[in-house]
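Before relying on records like the one below, remember that each one covers exactly one chain. Contacts with other chains, cofactors or solvent are not represented anywhere in the record.
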Amino acid sequence: MANPVLTTASIEKQYESVQAVDGISFTVQPGEIFALLGPNGAGKTTVVRMLMGIIRPDAGTISYCLGGQEPAAPRPSELGYLPEDRGLYRDIPVERTLIYFGRLRGMSQAAARSAAREWLERLGLADRMADKLDTLSKGNQQKVQFISSILHRPAFAVLDEPFSGLDPLNQDLFLDLLRDLRNGGMTILLSAHQMALVERLADRVLLMNRGREVLQGTLPELRRAVQAGTRLRFQVPPGFAVEDVRVTGLSDIEVSADGFGGQVDDGVALNDVLRQVAAQFDIYGVHSEQLTLHDIYIRALGDKPPANGTEIGGPAA
């Protein structure tokens, strides 16, 4: 089995009285998309900045193994970085900016120009390559910053809030781009708070809150960790309360305008649940559903509020 691309062990970072990161450990495997998820203020960006060497951890270790058998400091050409805050030159033409960043990562002038034009075409910005960054919309600026981070085809890309400033159509475009990059062999770590988007993309996730790990693993592993198996939702006539639903093996029942839903307990046969519901209600429809990442996070968090009281999936700070 190949060595992890990235290994962090018990990393910590404190700012004055705030423990921003508290004992976080994880690995990123070659060719996967690994996501750091959580509300604003959870510590994700601090982790990313430590990974990129912008700040140093107070404790713990960070090691890379990109292309070799032994851990080694990554070369500039091996890493790509999309910061949360835009870091491009706002008064320089877009194409010139991208060529400059490509050259910094070891590309030739011709290769950087060719790659820049290819990506600008792909992202619908070919007609803006001579424009200054400051003249672009926030979403288009994010596209240019994204291109600058992967123009040189790094082995490992670290993307902090890649969906920031994007409308729903461009969010879907970025999902496809990131899948294509992964399928082409790039390993990607992304930090985000839009759990619904990352749920469609990530191979594994680390859920964070207040600088600490909440849960870590694949989505099926997270569901098992919070004992979140199959949920059934029944469309039935209205006019009843939760206490009127008497179904053995169905828990966490929620009543809505068009029926009710509940969690099927472990070891309970679905046909037994269906038989009990049919004995009490006229069933117009039934479907199964699984907990989303947002639901898993809330369930795992329990009564502890998100960091800074931020609503998960809300706007970035």
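The CA atoms of residues 235 and 259 lie 4 Å apart.
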